[in-house]
């Protein structure tokens, strides 16, 4: 049997977009900066197998369309803008049956000057991003996954790890107290939206859910007497599911950022381990990596 084309998609990645909204009456400006990816699927196989470019929507067209949609439509929340952009491609081109759009919204936080919010100045207060992954599929609807990515957190106590499997391959010692640090990647998937108008009606939910997910992540991370990253992240998932009934599933990916005690006993018997530990060596790799997805129970 001859080989066949099993799956194809193509598009434009790393489209940088910045939009400013000017409230002339209030004298306040609001800015949004995004990185956008567009990938298309459909009846495009002949472009691969027969050099038939007539089915190709140029990737430059995807870039220009992204700019135009940003001018003509709201870019916040990212779930809405990604849905508008994805729906445009499946509705405009009859041979395109699925459009996948990812929007990464970068942080610009309004400055406070002399205790007052500045009307047009902002600062980048971390690498954390707010993301939206949207697929518009012909005859199916719109699927949305919202996410918090790159939220770096650390607590200096309140985390333990013991009771794990110990055998002839185990060197790790149980600990009742340790530093816990991770870079949060948290996502939540919404119920299927049948059309763009349904997404537009749901807009107030997106900001509310993002704030709740972020607040829950930080609160549980800080307050939980963590027996393991696994147990702590499950508690986070469970709590997020409880705040919004149209969220179908919550997932976390948490790398363990290790901080190792440094034995200084070689120097005049100086104590720097156990309860005497104050100086640690941050580790970049290797690192633990823990995943978890919690779905809502079927009614």
Instruction: Work out the strand percent.
Output: 35-45%
> How are strands sequenced across the largest beta sheet?
1-2-3-6-7-8-9-12
Sequence of secondary-structure elements: EEHHHEEEEEEHHHEEEE
Radius of gyration: 24 Å
Q: What is the average of the pLDDT values?
A: 97
Task: Profile the largest sheet.
Answer: 8 strands, antiparallel
Question: What is the β-strand count?
Answer: 12
Structural class: alpha+beta
Distance between the amino and carboxyl termini: 46 Å
Low-confidence stretches: none
Report the total helices. 6
- The rough form would be described as globular
Helix content: 25-40%
Write the layout of secondary structure elements.
Layout (H helix, E strand, L loop, with lengths): L9 E14 L4 E15 L2 H5 L9 H14 L5 H15 L3 E11 L2 E5 L2 E8 L5 E9 L3 E21 L13 E16 L5 H6 L1 H21 L5 H15 L3 E10 L2 E3 L18 E3 L5 E8 L4
Antiparallel strand pairs: 1-2, 2-3, 3-6, 4-5, 6-7, 7-8, 8-9, 9-12, 10-11
Helix pairs in contact: 5-6
Written overview of the protein:
The structure is a single chain. With 299 residues, the protein is of the alpha+beta class. 25% of the residues lie in helices and 41% in strands. The protein contains six helices and twelve strands. It has helices spanning 45-49, 59-72, 78-92, 196-201, 203-223, 229-243; strands at 10-23, 28-42, 96-106, 109-113, 116-123, 129-137, 141-161, 175-190, 247-256, 259-261, 280-282, 288-295. The strands form three sheets. An eight-stranded antiparallel sheet has the order 1-2-3-6-7-8-9-12. Helix 5 packs antiparallel against helix 6. The longest helix is centred in the C-terminal third of the chain and has 21 residues, at 203-223. The relative contact order is 0.10.
């Amino acid at each position: 049997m001859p080989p066949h084309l099993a799956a194809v998609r193509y598009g434009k990645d790393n489209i940088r977009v910045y939009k400013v909204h000017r409230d002339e009456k209030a004298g306040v400006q609001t800015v949004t900066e995004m990185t956008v990816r567009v990938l298309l699927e459909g009846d495009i196989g002949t472009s691969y197998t027969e050099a038939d470019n007539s089915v190709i929507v140029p990737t430059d067209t995807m870039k220009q369309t992204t700019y135009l949609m940003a001018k003509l439509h709201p870019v916040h929340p990212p779930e809405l803008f990604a849905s508008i952009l994805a729906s445009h491609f499946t509705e405009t081109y009859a041979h395109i049956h699925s459009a996948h759009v990812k929007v990464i919204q970068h942080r610009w936080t309004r400055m406070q000057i002399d205790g007052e919010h500045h009307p047009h100045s902002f600062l980048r207060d971390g690498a954390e991003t707010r993301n939206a992954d949207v697929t518009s599929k012909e005859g199916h609807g719109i699927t949305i996954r919202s996410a918090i990515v790159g939220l770096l957190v650390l607590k200096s106590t309140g985390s333990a790890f013991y009771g794990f499997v110990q055998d002839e391959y185990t060197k790790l010692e149980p600990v009742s107290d340790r530093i816990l640090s991770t870079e949060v990647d948290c996502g939540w998937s919404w119920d299927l939206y049948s059309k763009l108008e349904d997404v537009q009606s749901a807009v107030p939910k997106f900001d509310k859910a993002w704030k709740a997910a972020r607040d829950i992540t930080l609160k549980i991370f800080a307050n939980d007497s963590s027996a393991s990253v696994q147990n702590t992240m499950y508690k986070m998932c469970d709590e997020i599911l409880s705040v919004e009934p149209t969220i179908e599933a919550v997932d976390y990916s948490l790398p363990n950022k290790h901080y190792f005690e440094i034995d200084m006993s070689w120097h005049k018997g100086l104590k720097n381990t156990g309860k005497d530990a104050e100086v640690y060596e941050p580790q970049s790799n290797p690192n633990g990596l823990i995943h978890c997805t919690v779905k809502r129970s079927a009614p």
